[in-house]
Design a protein that fits this description.
By secondary structure, the protein is α+β, with helices and mostly antiparallel strands. The chain is 38% helix and 32% strand. It has 4 helices and 8 strands. Helix 3 runs antiparallel to helix 4. The radius of gyration is 26 Å and the shape is globular. The model has no long low-confidence stretch (mean pLDDT 89).
């Protein structure tokens, strides 16, 4: 009969406490991630405060020509008004750093404009948070066998950058040109002014139905 293999055993290392070394590494990673989260919150707070203010001023400008937009977040969440809509101050309790999506949407029923939107959102790409600004609009309706009629929306990417490398001057320049065309399209009562500008000047992104 073959002899049973002797069980192998090792005496605990007296020089290295493996768990202590592991625990120190886990603590280091915890602190590193906490610092990254805190930094992201600070950046988002500053960027969102500026962009929400920008989009609200755009809302006011279009409202002057009787074009009604809806906005996300809604104005009652972030603003206290002394005289609506121009005189306001930020609500002290509003958490700008918690906002992941800012949206200005056209509610005009004529020319199928409902849903034409300027959307600023945070997305995760390449293991890093990115800020993305897109123009979104409905391309039409399609019938699906099991779901019925649904609208098809397409997004065009106006600006995208890692959060830690955002160029607000470039973002504002693009935003200004888009708003100018959008505004003119309403003055001319011609939706194609803004849609042709977007299609010709920017990269097509995602498409979805709802």
């Amino acid at each position: 009969m073959a002899a049973k293999a002797k069980s192998k055993s090792k005496t605990p290392s007296k020089d290295v406490d493996w768990f202590q070394a592991l625990d120190e590494e886990l603590e280091r990673k915890s602190e590193e991630l906490k610092d990254n989260v805190d930094t992201l919150k600070t950046v988002k707070r500053e960027i969102n405060a500026e962009l929400i203010k920008d989009l609200w001023r755009i809302w006011i400008r279009f409202n002057k020509i009787d074009v009604l937009f809806s906005m996300e977040p809604v104005h009652s969440d972030f603003a206290i008004f002394t005289q609506f809509p121009e005189n306001w101050s930020a609500r002290s309790e509003f958490k700008y750093e918690n906002v992941d999506r800012i949206r200005l949407a056209d509610t005009t029923q004529a020319q199928n404009r409902i849903g034409d939107s300027l959307l600023i959102q945070y997305v995760h790409k390449d293991d890093a948070p990115h800020l993305q600004m897109v123009f979104e609009f409905c391309e039409g309706e399609h019938y699906y066998k099991y779901a019925g009629w649904k609208r098809t929306y397409v997004q065009y990417i106006l600006y995208e950058s890692p959060v830690d490398d955002i160029d607000m001057d470039s973002l504002h320049e693009i935003l200004g040109t888009v708003v100018m065309e959008w505004y003119e399209s309403h003055l001319r009562k011609d939706r194609n002014v803004i849609l042709d500008f977007i299609r010709d000047g920017f990269q097509k992104g995602s498409t979805y139905s709802q």
